[in-house]
Amino acid sequence: MSFIDRWLARATNLTTVIGAIAVVLMMVHITVDVVGKFILFLPVPATITLVSNYYMVVVAFLPLALAERRNSHISVEVLTEQFSPGVQRHIHGWTCLYSAVIFSLLTYRSFLDAVDKYELGSFIMEQSTKVPIWPGHFLLPLGAGLMVLMLLLRFANYLSGRPQPGGSGTVAE
Predict the structure, then answer these.
(1) Which of 45, 54, 59, 171 sits at a 20 to 30 Å CA gap from 139?
(2) Which DSSP symbol is given to 135?
(3) What is the mean pLDDT of residues 7-32?
């Protein structure tokens, strides 16, 4: 296992742990809000804003690279499953490069958006509470950037003939 593969494995594991913690915190936060709202008549301020701008973004975007590492993304192979294992390997390899380009564009654009939100000091007012939301905008480029690195590693492994990190799940493996 190469240094880059080990580093990416650690980074993806860390982002997954952060995602799992976010799920637990979100459940606790919403539960406390519901109990506070309907039993104590005292809701937790900014619950909707925190859930939608922080927890959900962490849960949705940080574990992207781990899903790629485990080959857990949804794929439909109606046509490609008819090809030989060698052709499938080439299609998978070049698809990694294409996907890396797309995710690079997503990373770049979302980072520019996050910087704009930071410079504006973007916030949302909820129940007379000012909640800064600009930090949450940096989570998308972080998750997408890790995905780019994972895809580039897969493409480099394809070119060199090395096994894919975490297993590629392809027939040619």
Answers:
(1) 45
(2) G
(3) 95
Amino acid at residue number 104: S
Other Cβ atoms within 10 Å of 99 Cβ, number: 19
Q: What is the pLDDT of residues 95-109, one digit of tens each?
A: 999 999 999 999 999
Amino acid at 173: E
Q: How would residue 123 be classed by pLDDT, with cut points 50, 70 and 90?
A: very high
| C-alpha–C-alpha distance, residues 132 and 115, integer Å | 14
Query: Do residues 88 and 171 lie in contact, with contact meaning Cβ atoms separated by under 8 Å?
Result: yes
CB 43 within 8 A of CB 37: yes
Residue 173, pLDDT above cutoff 60: no
